């Protein structure tokens, strides 16, 4: 059974996230328009879910960690959560502009730099990296010398890597939130002397609160929400694990990011029955288009592009496995 402190932390995250989502309906028209997107059904959705989730999860993570007697984890959660949310919001808004559309994937961001331009995605990558490094320094405060440098680096890789990997799954309604919930589960159930369970409880509460609107395709996480949830999970992992554990997780996250450049996670999930069942749970059924009478003359077969199923609607749209929900 979860401790009362973890339960309170999860409830605080859920209540704050829900309140922020409701408040988003009263945002100025210019902000609402900047966060508006059209999904694959041609329906209007909003990216306001992302900042709401980031705020709720971060506030609760900081509060829960402080109550658990882990001030370093509280500082790390504040820096990583808010930092990832800020640059994620920037990428959600600026990255959707027409001149940014082709700057997708690491190759696209590097190409933009070679051309003398700084893409919104590059700003996000740098911002997440800097906030992860600062959070890693906060977590490794008791170390000294070379050992502290190693701990800080490993923690930063885990935090930044988790932020990016959760964002890689934000391609279908509810998917990134489900990934966050599954990753948070073991941390919530573990010891909480280091504040890691409180951080995971905050992620859990915020994700549960956001899930109905996300599955209902009324809103989506975007980079702001997905990066923030991932960064907070990274803080929890870095606070919980020792040096060997952080090195192992860092290697796994780097492997997933490398694989995402060549492999469609959506196709892998669709081909794996168990994963596909979890992915489809709670989602609306696909749109049913009216039947079209077959043409009288044969037409050439059109072959879909390898990642045609991963077209995204915001954020790093078009990256294999990345973005704000190709929905």
Description of the molecule:
The chain has 327 residues and is mainly α. It has one domain (4-284, 305-310). The chain is 64% helix and 2% strand. It has 13 helices and two strands. The chain has helices at 4-23, 29-34, 49-67, 71-94, 105-114, 120-139, 145-168, 175-189, 196-215, 222-240, 243-260, 265-271, 273-280, and strands at 36-38, 44-46. Strand 1 and strand 2 form a beta hairpin. Helix 4 packs antiparallel against helix 6. It starts with a helix and ends in a 47-residue tail after the last helix. Residues 289-326 have low confidence and may be disordered.
Quaternary structure: single chain
State the domain count: 1
Shape: globular
Question: Secondary-structure element order, as H and E?
Answer: HHEEHHHHHHHHHHH
Structural class: mainly alpha
The residue ranges in which pLDDT falls below 50 over 5 or more consecutive positions are 289-326
The tally of beta strands, per DSSP, is: 2
- On the 0 to 100 scale, the average pLDDT is 83
Give a quick account of the main beta sheet: strands, pairing sense, barrel closure.
Answer: 2 strands, antiparallel
Q: Determine the number of helices (DSSP H or I, runs of at least 4 residues).
A: 13
Query: What is the radius of gyration?
Result: 20 Å
Instruction: Give the strand order of the largest sheet, numbering strands 1, 2, ... along the chain.
Output: 1-2
Query: Which band does the percent of strand residues land in?
Result: under 5%
């Amino acid at each position: 059974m979860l401790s009362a402190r973890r339960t309170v932390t999860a409830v605080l995250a859920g209540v704050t996230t829900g309140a922020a989502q409701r408040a988003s309906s009263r945002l100025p028209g210019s902000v609402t328009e900047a966060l508006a997107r059209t999904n694959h059904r041609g329906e209007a959705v909003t990216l306001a879910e992302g900042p709401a989730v980031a705020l709720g999860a971060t506030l609760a993570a900081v509060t829960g960690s402080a109550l658990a007697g882990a001030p370093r984890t509280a500082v790390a959660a504040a820096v990583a959560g808010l930092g990832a949310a800020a640059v994620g919001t920037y990428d959600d808004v600026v990255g959707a502009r027409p001149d940014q559309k082709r700057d997708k994937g690491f190759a696209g961001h590097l190409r933009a730099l070679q051309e003398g331009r700084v893409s919104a995605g590059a700003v996000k990558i740098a911002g997440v990296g800097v906030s992860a490094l600062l959070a890693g320094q906060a977590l490794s405060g008791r170390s000294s010398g070379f050992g502290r440098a190693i701990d800080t680096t490993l923690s930063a890789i885990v935090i930044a890597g988790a932020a990016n990997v959760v964002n890689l799954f934000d391609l279908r309604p509810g998917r990134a939130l489900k990934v966050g919930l599954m990753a948070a589960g073991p941390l919530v159930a573990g010891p909480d002397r280091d504040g890691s369970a409180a951080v995971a409880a905050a992620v859990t509460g915020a994700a549960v609160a956001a899930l109905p609107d996300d599955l209902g395709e009324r809103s989506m996480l975007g980079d702001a929400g997905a990066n923030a949830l991932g960064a907070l999970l990274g803080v929890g992992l870095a606070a919980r694990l020792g040096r060997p554990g952080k090195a192992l997780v860092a290697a796994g996250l780097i492997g997933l990011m490398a694989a995402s450049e060549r492999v469609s996670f959506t196709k892998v999930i669709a081909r794996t029955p168990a994963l596909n069942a979890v992915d489809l749970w709670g989602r609306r059924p696909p749109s049913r288009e009216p039947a079209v009478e077959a043409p009288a003359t044969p037409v050439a077969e059109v072959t879909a592009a390898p990642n045609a199923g991963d077209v995204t609607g915001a954020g790093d749209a078009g990256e294999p496995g990345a973005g704000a929900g190709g929905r």
